[in-house]
Sequence to fold (172 residues):
Amino acid sequence: MSGIVDLKRARMVKTVRRAFRNWATQFGEQFGVATGFSDISTKTLAFLAKGSDQSAFYFFDLIMNLQGLGSGFEFNSLTPKEKLSVMDRYLFLLDRVRFEHMKRLGWLDDYPGAEMAFTDLVFQFEGLAPPLQAKTPSLSKKHPAFPKFSNMGAFEREEFVRKLIPEALKLL
Fold:
């Protein structure tokens, strides 16, 4: 039985290595099965958080390789359903990267999915994304707007945190 688990793990490691190959080249860092948002450098985080066409490519490449859809260069060849699947995962990961940036700025204490690996969030997207998206990141008590934030309802809190993103991106 353990031989089957090892073979499955070996396939996973190979898939993840291939999926992160362009990340390793671009960013000069090591990425693996357990790589999470807190594990990437501030330089890499800043690049990914911008949401530019270049950074989108690296997300597409990671997601598509993990899902067995080819490389990010082949995004325009995907079916509409496949493109939507990749885009959903991309936007979800982009949010987590931006929340991580805000956490490093000291603006957030925590955010949903902070402890999770990129690979888990892609592979288990359907089960993980809805509950994580339903939770609002925790604004730090040290943030000047915390008193206002603490008096808001759940929907207003999420909107408030999202409105902080452009200001946070200016600090990259």
The mean pLDDT is 94. Residues 27 and 43 are 8 Å apart (CA to CA).
